[in-house]
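Quick one: Lrp/AsnC family transcriptional regulator from Streptomyces catenulae, structure tokens please.
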Amino acid sequence: MYEPDALDLCLLQALQLDGRAPFRRIAEVLGVSDQTIARRFRRLRGEARLRVVGVADRSRLGRTNWIVRLRCAPDAAEPLADALARRPDTSYIGLMSGGTEVMCTMKPRSRQDRDDLLLDRIPRTRRVTSIDACCVLSHFYGAPLGWLNKIDALTPEQEAALRPDPPGAVDGPVAPDALDEALLEVLGRDGRASATELAAATGQTESAVKRRVRRLRASGLLVFYIECDHEQLGHGTVAVLWLKVAPSRLRSVGRTLAGHREVRFAAATSGQANVMVSVLCRTTEELFAYLADRVGAMDGVQAIETLPTLREVKALTYVTPR
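--- reply ---
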């Protein structure tokens, strides 16, 4: 197994802070050469399947995500997960323990798209036995791999030097035009695509696409995340927790979960289990200790359902290789 060293971890956290940070800037902050950073980046791409992706913050678009739990016959779960992963309107697919449940995050572009998916297409899918669709009401923490912000590889001074300016306040949803959408499509495949590549894909000049990318980032619409093989980083135990939390404690529980090193995603959802948490641990023993000693001890947590993940089929925009 590939084992990243301290410099690799610093580079990963630097990219989590700013996915488009020039290698020159990262190298200067870390005290190494540009060539060293470029070489490490290429190695992480090969060994740990590192990807930088630029995606639209759907809350800035006024759109809602849905987390869907699909239960089906054992021999139907994996083909269903693979088929859902190929859809552009899904951003996370997990094959859960037992092999009979597929968990899927869906991002419909409109109410009609949502109804077509949840009320028509999925219910008519063969061998699906039950469907639970939960609306994401509020995010407490991050995208699927936001946990790289918590690995503490960088010093506070290095973090401050690499952290980009925060987006400005925006009143109401942002409305991207056709050229913005074209840029987002390219950046969704490669968040570090050069200005030359972006210009070629959109038919604009390099200066024009640079201005648009700056504007999209400043508005908060365009955000960058890191995808990588967390098992290569020593975190081989993945699980989803469904918590039933007293409504009066939702905010405080969410804030506490967001600060846990194990948590890479947490959100309040509709449904009886009203908080969904995705966690990464090194071992099953570590997962047990986290559940028993930390989550179970939180004031307001009334029940916990724990679902280990057998295979992550898709994260954000990339289908994960088997």
